[in-house]
Design a protein that fits this description.
Binding site for cyanocob(III)alamin: 8, 53, 155-156, 181, 203
CATH architecture of the largest domain: Beta Complex
Family: Belongs to the eukaryotic cobalamin transport proteins family.
Strand content: 25-35%
Keywords: Cobalt, Cobalt transport, Ion transport, Secreted, Signal, Transport
Structural class: alpha+beta
CATH class of the largest domain: Mainly Beta
Oligomer: single chain
GO molecular function: cobalamin binding
InterPro entries: Cbl-bd_prot (IPR002157), Cobalamin_Transport (IPR051588), Transcobalamin-like_C (IPR027954)
């Protein structure tokens, strides 16, 4: 399903490891290994946790193989650290063209219902988190939000003062048009003219 995607881009690493490890027991149905790997290879992974989970499947080795690696053979080959770039500059220090992203927040689930929309201008290549930050700077009373840091990157806990709850099984879901995003707010990069919706939802 979904052209090789298994769940979402975060679950792909573990799914590939599990399917590869159990391929002899996965009869009678076959899974399209090449299609699934093409999804992984086409994605620009940013989160260390996602990279750590997908690498074993990509190299055909398990975490247990790490004990036998010859680290001395790779000494001195690690890349030099780079200084962080300004969000408004590209990789060569050239200003990135601005784009406009439609951003809306909606709650029809709990308390006083609301729906607010705005048009945000950010440099191309900006993450959804940066879009949300600009919206909050321009209109803090409406678009303020809070996040917590996780091993998968920033997780949005509340928007417009409304927080998700494990007791109520509520959370903020992010969609592009009608489709749920496959990445988190810290890595997803909206394109020009895209409509990103944050919808207070239940699971």
């Amino acid at each position: 399903e979904k052209n090789g995607m298994i769940g979402n881009i975060y679950s792909m690493g573990l799914a590939l490891q599990a399917l590869d490890a159990t391929r002899t027991f996965y009869a009678p149905r076959k899974w399209d290994c090449a299609q699934a790997f093409s999804v992984v290879l086409a994605h620009d992974y940013q989160q260390p946790m996602a990279i750590a989970q997908v690498l074993p499947a990509l190299v055909g080795r398990s975490y247990l193989d790490a004990a036998g690696l010859d680290c001395a053979a790779t000494k001195g080959t690690s890349p030099k650290p780079q200084l962080p770039l300004s969000p408004a500059l590209g990789t060569h220090g050239v200003p990135r063209a601005p784009i406009q992203v439609h951003y809306s927040i909606t709650n029809t689930l709990q308390g006083t219902h609301f729906h607010y929309s705005t048009l945000v201008t950010v440099p191309s290549g900006s993450t959804l988190l940066q879009v949300m930050e600009v919206a909050a700077e321009e209109n803090p009373q409406t678009f303020s939000f809070q996040t917590e840091q996780t091993s998968w990157g920033p997780y949005v806990t509340s928007i417009h003062g409304l927080a998700g709850s494990t007791e109520d099984r509520t959370y903020w879901q992010f969609l592009s048009a009608e489709d749920a995003l496959d990445e988190g707010v810290g890595t997803y990069k909206p394109h020009a003219g895209e409509h990103i919706r944050a919808v207070f939802s239940t699971y």
